[in-house]
Amino acid sequence: MIEELPQLQTQALAELAAAADRDAVEAWRVKYLSRQGLLPVLLEKIKTLPKEQRPAAGQAANLAKTAINSAFEARREEFDTATVSAPDDPTLPGRPVQWATPHVVHQTIERIVQIFRRMGFAIASGPEIDTEFYNFDALNTPADHPARNEQDTFYVDAPADRDGHRFLLRSQTSTVQIRAMQTQPPPIKIIAPGRCYRRDEIDATHGVFFHQIEGLVVDDGITLADLKGTMEYFFKEFIGSDTRVRFRPHFFPFTEPSFEVDMARANATVKGKEWLEIAGCGMVDPNVFDNVSVDSKRYTGFAFGMGVERLAMLQHNISDLRLLYENDLRFLAQFK
Fold it and tell me: What is the mean pLDDT of the chain?
């Protein structure tokens, strides 16, 4: 055993010195240093030696292992250094550069924002970790509303704020609307794009986070006609001039009256349906104005919200929401 180690060392170092390129060095490593390589297999035999021979064998093994590993590292570094320092050959063809592009969701956000900016909307933002006051209380959401249950909302394991409100990952960007009304007097005309979080089962149309764009307009004499005209103009601009929009009565705690917005296109169906639910909206409930000290007897307003991922899927005929976040460049490279 002790005689085999020097022989193996001599053989290994000679073959390593003769390695002509990086591939040859890698083949050498597999032969001598991999789990089933010649050196580990030989070292395993030390356990089978008589006790009195093991110290000498172990010492010889350490010397051989150190010499072989050091030679390997030095030889590999030689090729790495040679590769880095090798001058560029001007006669070789250039290396193609793969230019990055914005993610399809952010492309969609940019397009939505551009349309609303043409209508005079300003962009507002707010924190993704907020309190129950901004996410629920100020939005006229009752204490027993299902959305406030921990099975639907991500609460943060942190002390409550001064007023006893728990912190959470916002489930809607309506929180930004409340902050805007608290910090600036009417007239207000904003959109709030951002990420939201909900405890949904992950499937083709749901995830635990999504992007939302909400809008708010507050001023003297704002009516349902203004809301309807805004929604119709946006969807015709975003989807196409042949888009039809309808308002279906619905219920939201923070708007009254409230509507679901459906859209349809001429001679087109989505999953066999003529109409597709695309957004929610309504006139701001006077209770919401009272919660943020806006004069509800003087001012009226409307609010709306829509999911960015759903609009992206509709625009590009994407069938599964999960494709947007799997980071598969083959998929993402389609959207430039």
Answer: 89
Instruction: Give 124-145 pLDDT, tens digit per residue.
Output: 999 999 999 999 999 999 988 8
Note whether 144 and 213 are within 8 A (CB).
no
When pLDDT is averaged across residues 155-163 and rounded to a whole number, the result is 93
Per residue in 218-233, pLDDT (tens digit) is 999 999 999 999 999 9
Burial 203-237 (b: 16+ CB within 10 A, else e): eeeebeebbbbbbbbbeeebeeebbbebbbebbbb
Q: Are 214 and 172 in contact (CB under 8 A)?
A: yes
Looking at residues 82-109, what average pLDDT do you find? 78
Domains located in the chain, CATH noted: 4-85 (no CATH), 104-332 (3.30.930.10)
pTM for this one?
0.69
Q: CA 7 to CA 287: how far, in whole Å?
A: 89
Residue whose token pair is 């250094």 = 81
User: In three state form, how does the secondary structure of the chain look?
Assistant: CCCHHHHHHHHHHHHHHHCCCHHHHHHHHHHHCCCCCHHHHHHHHHHHCCHHHHHHHHHHHHHHHHHHHHHHHHHHHHHHHHHHHCCCCCCCCCCCCCCCCCCHHHHHHHHHHHHHHHCCCEECCCCCEEEHHHHCHHHCCCCCCHHHCCCCCCECCCCCCCCCCCEEECCCCHHHHHHHHHHCCCCEEEEEEEEEECCCCCCCCCCCEEEEEEEEEEEECCCHHHHHHHHHHHHHHHCCCCEEEEEEEEEECCEEEEEEEEEEECCCCECCECCEEEEEEEEECHHHHHHCCCCCCCEEEEEEEEEHHHHHHHHHCCCCHHHHHCCCHHHHCCCC
Contacts for 163 with CB less than 8 Å, ≥ 6 apart = 133
| Nearest CA-CA partner of 177 in 257, 259, 291, 262 | 291
